[in-house]
Amino acid sequence: MMLKLSSFAAATGCMIVAGCGLHPLYGDSAATPHLADTLSRVYVEQIPDRVGYQLRNELLDLFNATGRAEDATYRLALRLNEEEQAVALQTNTNITRYNYTLRAHYELVPRGSTKIVKSGDLITLTAYNVAAAPFLFGTVAAERDAKDRAANDLAERIRIEIAVFLRGEAGSAR
Q1: How far is CA 59 from the centre of its chain?
Q2: Residue of 49, 73, 47 whose CA lies nearest to 59
């Protein structure tokens, strides 16, 4: 009896979700058959510094883009702001941990236009430990890893925001 009730509840739940208009963001559907193709035609402008380089490369991978401006339907410009803050101090005032904050402002512009169709501000926070004196390379590696994790997190979040916007644009164009 309990198995029949849970099967019924699961089937009812699936019908409710199917009827509410939810669709996979990246999967093809009648509303957005070419979202992945549209994402691949977003040109990500160059971003200064190593973290910018990492963020741009991650976005190109996530968009499955070529990185060539001449094939682009949209241009994505980003500005980054980095901040490091000491958060753990020993009694001798040695810093043992840093928080790394990466802020990004992005603007999506259609090809041949100057009108911004989508913009946003995102913030991510990572942290890393400072190794004791004989292990200074460990601190350098930890700092680089924290910055890479922050860039990868922002890239994922930017991709989601851009994909949701482009899906909405495809739906309104019908």
Answers
A1: 7
A2: 47
Q: Any residues with CB less than 8 A from the CB of 173 and at least 6 apart, and which?
A: none
**pLDDT tens digits along 109-159:** 999 899 999 999 999 999 998 887 767 888 899 999 999 999 999 999 999
Three-state DSSP at 21 gives coil
HSE, side-chain direction, 13 A CA sphere, residue 157: 17
Domains and their CATH numbers in the chain = 34-172 (3.30.160.150)
- Would you place residue 20 in the very low, low, confident or very high pLDDT band (cuts 50, 70, 90)? low
Determine the angle formed by the axes of helices 136-172 and 49-63, rounding to 10 degrees: 40
pTM exceeds 0.70 for this model: yes
Token representation of residue 139 = 């601190």
- Residue 91: what are its φ and ψ, rounded to 5°? -65, -25
Share of the chain above pLDDT 70, in %: 77
3-state SS class at 139: helix
